[in-house]
Design a protein that fits this description.
The chain is α+β, with helices and mostly antiparallel strands. Helices cover 40% and strands 26% of the residues.
Length: 234
């Protein structure tokens, strides 16, 4: 579910036009429905991108990490923010005012093309992800989403080459899976019993993302890839 990163050349250009900003856990980088006033290029930390439906259900669309853009789509089309971006820990990045960002793209066709490619890849991954997950039962869907997130954003575990530790709570995971928290908690217990994961407060350690991605709950592997990022970035 990782989004595509811009090439170094364009990241350096964006950083030169922006200001360094830091956010603490729980602080909002962008709010759904607000006017698009800036683009953020992340340097470190993780950000969750969410949206609240008319019924009050919060969906986790994606996580974003180092070298990824946030808020570029709204700045390009001039619309309101389509999602909320929240820091999941200490996050550092560069904030570029929307007019400065659009001016950069007008002056540098290569940057505009790179941003367009990022948006297109996110949308393509979103379509693939929905197709992958739509036909799976909750147990397999939870395992696959957790495997993809840990593969893309999990931190290495010292002394264990394959394990990844992901900073995510049970409600956030349930939002990403599209299931109730209670259902996901039951699946996490099953995955723990099978020694595929270890759960602690606000964190889940996946012993091997590749093994988890192919687990169906019945011992038979499924043929899936690591795709499935969501195109929204605020």
């Amino acid at each position: 579910m990782a989004g595509p990163a811009l090439p170094d050349k364009w990241r350096h250009l964006i950083r030169s036009a922006g200001q360094e900003v830091q956010w603490r856990r729980g602080e909002l980088l962008m709010r759904e429905g607000d006017t698009a006033d800036r683009v953020v290029l992340l340097h470190s930390g993780l950000v969750k991108v969410t949206s609240v439906s008319a019924t009050g259900f919060t969906s986790l669309f994606a996580l974003r990490g180092p070298d990824e853009l946030l808020g570029e789509l709204s700045c390009v089309d001039g619309g309101l923010r389509s999602a909320t971006a929240t820091a999941m820990g200490e996050v550092k990045g560069v904030a570029v005012p929307a007019p400065a960002f659009t001016s950069l793209m007008e002056a540098h066709g290569g940057l505009a093309l790179a941003v367009l490619r990022c948006v297109a890849e996110r949308l393509r991954e979103s379509d693939v992800g929905r197709a992958d997950l739509g036909a799976l039962p909750t147990v397999s869907r939870t395992a696959l989403v957790l495997a993809r997130l840990s593969h893309s954003y999990g931190a290495p575990v010292p002394g264990d080459f394959t394990a990844r530790r992901l900073t995510i709570n049970q409600q956030e995971l349930a939002s990403a899976v599209g299931a109730s928290r209670e259902s996901v908690v039951r699946v996490l217990r099953v995955l723990t019993d099978h020694r595929l994961i270890a759960v602690s407060r606000g964190r889940i350690m996946v012993h091997d993302p590749a093994d988890l991605a192919g687990w169906t709950g019945a011992g038979a592997p499924v043929s899936v890839g690591w795709g499935g990022g969501v195109g929204r970035g605020g």
